Every structure is written in C-alpha cells, then in structure tokens.
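note to self: dont lose this again. the chain is below, predicted strucutre after it. 374 aa total, dont forget to put it in the shared folder this time
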Amino acid sequence: MPESQINQPQVKVAHAIRVFSYGGAEVLLREFFTTKEFKKEVISDVFVLDHIKLGLKDDVTPNIRNFYFYYITTWRFFFEYFKFLRQLAKGNYDVVHMHLPVAGWMGIVAKLFCGKTNFVYSEHNLVNYYTKYNYYISGWVYGLFDCVIYVSHEVGEVINKVRKGWFYKTKKGVTILNGIDTEKFQCTHRSELKPSETLTIGLVARFRPQKRVDRWAEVAAAIHKINPGIKFLMVGDGPSDDLLRETITKLNMNGVIELPGMLSDTFAAYKKIDIFLLTSDFEGLPLALLEAMSCGCVPVVSNVGGIKQLDFGGVGHKFDAFDPAAIANVIDGYTKDPGAYFDQSERARAFVIKNYSLTKQVNEIIALYRELIG
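---
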C-alpha cells in the first residue's frame, strides 16, 4: 500500500449500480469488497436500482456497511427514485462511484444535492455499442462526473473518438485495468485431463445481447459435428436466454449443451471448463475471460474491444471473422495435440498473474479516491 494512504481516515463510498447479479461489473465489485486493502481503507455502501436482480447481495453484505435496493422498474418509479437520490444525498459520502450507464445517468442527479461529494463513473463497455438512449444520455452527462474510469485502453480510446464538444466531455479520465484475484482463481487439476478423449468448452457470462450466445451455440454445433466427444457448458442467464434456447433447439443441440443457469460460485464453473469460448460482438475488458485464464482455461475469443489489446503471446486463438467451422477446427485441434493444450493452459494463467492483479487495481482505485477528496 502506498505510504501516502497509511493512517488516513477511511473513505466513505456509495457504490451505485442498476442490478447486482452476475455480470462482470457486479462480480468485480464483490471481489473488491473482500480484499483486505479495500475493507481497511474504504467504508462501502451499495445502492442497487433494480430489486429483481440481487443475486450477489448475500455475498457482499458481510464486507460492507449497508445494502440498499429500490423498486425502480415498477409503477413506484418516481417514489423509489426520489428515495434513492435522498439516501445518496444524506449519506455524507466522500465519493459516489457509479457502475455502468443506467446507474451513471440516474445517480449523477444526486450531485445537485451534495456538492462536496465526488462523483466517479466506471465505464466497462465500448459506448459506441450502447443502445441509443444509453449512448446519448451518457454522452450528455459525462461532463458532470468528477472522474471517469476506463477499464481498458480501448474503452478510453472510443470515448476520445466520439467526443464532440460537451458530448462525452470528461473532467478527468483515467485508465485502471480490471484485476483478478489469482490466488482465488486457480486450478490444480489440469495435469489430470485427457484432452485426446474429451475437453469441455465453456462460457460464464450474463447473457446480454452483445455476448451473442446464439453464435456460441452455432460454434458448439459445428464442434459436435466433427467431435461428439467434446462437452459444452454455458453458465449464466439474462435477456438473451430465450434466444439461446431457441437456437439450441434449431440446431438440434438440446441435451448436448449443459445449461445450469447462473451459479454464485463462478470458480466452480471454471474448474469444469477447459477452453473458454467467447463470441461477443463487443467487450470492454471481460472479467470472466481473465478469471477463466487465471484458472488455466485456454481462450478462444472474438477479437473485439479490449480483447484486441490483450497480447496473449500465442496462447489460445482470437478470431476476427465469425466462421463456426474454422473456430470448431481450432478447438478440435487441442484434442489432437494435448501438449499444446497443457502448454497454453499454463501460459494463460501466467499471463494474468503478470498483467492483471486485483491488488494492483484496488490500490489504484483507493489512490484515486484519496486524490479526488484531497
């Protein structure tokens, strides 16, 4: 911990987010709250706008002070929204840290009532892929944030490209890369695998439209056609869940792709996955990918967003064009060359350990809080 942070009062931070289920931003927050550095330096309250998606609530409550949630998505919207703003304003926070766009542009209104509080926003995605209402509303309010955190270099580059005058203007922009608890996310059983007999292709994600889970199923079908011994596991749920199931039925893959739903213990899922397949249209810096690689999963991923800037150095495979048959051949190749699988599995974990430490990210966030409050 930097010497400048020693013996200073704890920073009071309100974390606002729309849902608190199993998306990357939510899981990352959960990991923050468990670190000794964050618990020592920060007093955390969590504000969730949607009362339906609260899957991580029980995981975080032992490590924070208060947990609030609101019925924003019901007919009680205005009453609940006012209650949310009032609670933020009366909390006397040093920092309000908003995560993802809806919490960003809904939470920034509280700035009108607590002028001494610093408002920080974390941008986890590439804004040019947002829905129109999120894109434009976010662009109009960016200049109200005291600081915007970009979770990858490309997230920041996109902001610079779309900025026009006040639109996506930032008072202060900093890049703080997502980090992984590499001690927690590690598997020791890889050496016992027999890739020539079977591998499990997997995904752990919130099934949002940009994840293109329909394409994931298409790749699985192409793999199953050439190697019926390979297994498939898709852990998650979300808005694209119905699309996924329709696609699986259309491809005659019912019973072939295992769909356990969302699991609170993502590590248990990574233990079952040997190759992490990601077919997204866009990504910021996908936390699940880094967690999977820390567990030794070999990445086969679409070369989009922040993934482009991850120099795997010969580990796994990035694809620019979506070609299910070609991707299937790459994955099947690991069953024919077990040595390549084991080598790349080890190097996948080494890559994350070297470049994406959760401790580093947490300390940078804390240092930013203290810089803002002076």
